[in-house]
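User: Second chain of the day. Same drill as before.
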Amino acid sequence: MGWTGSGPTMRGRGSGLRRGLLPAVLVAILFTPAGCTPTPPVVGPVWSRVTLPRGVKPVTLTAAGTRLLVGGRAATARVKPRLLLVAPDGSGSEIPLTPYSAYAPETTWQSIASDGHRVLAVGGAVGGAHFNTRWTTWEGTNAGLTETPQPFDTFGGWGAGALIGPVVTSAGSAITGSWAGARSGLDAAIWLPVGPRWVRAPSAGSALESTAALLVGQPSSATSAGAGIVMPGSAIHLGNGVVRQFAAVWRSVRLNSGWSRVDLPDSGVTSAATSAQCTTQRCVVAGYVDHLLALWRLSPSAAARISGVPGIASDARSSIPPPLVIGARIIEVVSAKSRVVVLAGGDRPWKSIQGPVGEATSSALAGGWLYVIAKHADGSSVLWRSRVKDLGVL
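Assistant: Same format as last time:
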């Protein structure tokens, strides 16, 4: 068991191929044979720490079939973004990255999407005279990712909002974010591939457009739902001098066509949707209502708030990873009192399982394992995993 792979390579235009500075690192995840590095301490009876290559901090988690993509960052390396692939048996490999642009070696992953084979990633690095985020896009497979450099004004410049991240649907890929609206505030925005370039599609006239009465602003995240895209967020209603923020979801029928907004029910005084997981037709949406965790079911014809969800304190500052769905069961990983908490229910009364110390910033299900990134108060992060059947959530 160990990490294999050559890590990032740097290809400068006209400069030839230069190897990255970090060699492959062998490291055990769960059980280490005699004579090797000891197994890291476990938290509780079922949680095991996943040891990453030296100096790599976990940032994002993405299921890729039965395997897990770990977007990481090595703060002292020449090429800082890293992409790791973890198999269910605990073996790991490092996916080669080929950066081109000046900011690519400094990027921190924003979001990574995969359909099990195709991989699309977005990262950012702060730079330039105004210290704005310089976005980089990466495409490939589990065999390797290559940066696709974009002109500055693709994602930056006058009117730029922010990027949420990539989506890989059955109808094609897109990058989601926001851009200055023609009428008011920020519109939600969609970029589609045209050859090697990402081109922003018009939002005017669609449900993605902000108006004087309703601001779309910046959706919180994006995910695929069959051929369509689902973006959780909040709709800011303006009228009679009153501002009301309600949880909402924007969804398309096919990639960037057929957009509609769904205002989520039982949204209290202040609420927002922050993340979602979807099948072809149905989604489970996570967010908060009046400073407490909330979950909704969303189908093509209806939306309903899920009852009985434990009252975990949550608000706009909270990290609420996307719900994880196994059949009729919903698993939501959250944080309470500086500790990871795994909630399981939806089809029966909810139960809570205590997890590692730290704030849950990302979670994923892959190959029968639940993976969680726990961020500590000092800024460090640790990747943990537990076998789903051992957690007692099924």
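The chain has two domains: 1-149+364-394, 165-320.

User: Great, on to the next one.
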